[in-house]
């Protein structure tokens, strides 16, 4: 009988410790800007300050996608793009960024928002951006989000607008992530160097769940107390 009571007490203490751990993890999880690319320095460095995630540089892939040091935006000229969805999603010219959780932390994503548009000469440019991620896969057969815009003779000035609605990343597949990559592809109806697709102010939002090792020392003290009670 005494042995059963002791066993019940030990189980209760373990449950209490586990509950305390969950409470502390929840209390220390925090909403965060996980990546923030404003291109204001003319490069793809993220300006976020989150210590629990590492946003790698926003990069142009394929030799034609680049970041401008004069207009402070990411750009891809229309002579380097296709005119259809399939051509865009199979293109070797695109933009990419990757975010990694630091240590044993996890990322619960919520949304991706950015500005999209163009700069044009005389012709009217109809363009579309397609966004894919490494969780759902890349390529023609993989899911994507898309946004379209129309611009007529901006005189070379950059015209971008925030996408509406933002890309929703609240699904379960975007929880407890240690890494994710996003890619941006383009299609348009022009084929010149003067009609240019543009991106700006790319922001990835989410909640960072820190590593249990980063939790307050009070949890360790609680474990010591419980172990002491167990020995009695």
Describe the structure.
This protein has 232 residues and is of the alpha+beta class. It is 20% helix and 39% strand. The protein is built from 3 helices and 13 strands. It is globular and about 55 Å long.
Classification by helices and strands: alpha+beta
Shape type: globular
**Beta-strand level of the residues, as a percent range?**
35-45%
Uncertain segments: 17-27, 217-222
Order of helices and strands: HEEEEEHEEEEEEEEH
What is the count of β-strands? 13
How far apart lie the N and C ends?
Answer: 17 Å
Helix tally equals 3
Biggest sheet details: 7 strands, antiparallel
Helix content: 10-25%
The residue-averaged pLDDT reads 86
Estimated radius of gyration: 24 Å
List the helices and strands and how they pair.
Blueprint lengths: L1 H27 L1 E8 L15 E3 L3 E3 L4 E2 L6 E4 L7 H5 L4 E8 L4 E14 L4 E10 L11 E8 L6 E4 L4 E2 L10 E10 L7 E14 L8 H14 L1
Antiparallel strand pairs: 1-13, 2-6, 3-6, 4-5, 5-13, 6-12, 7-10, 7-11, 7-13, 8-9, 8-12
Helix pairs in contact: 1-3
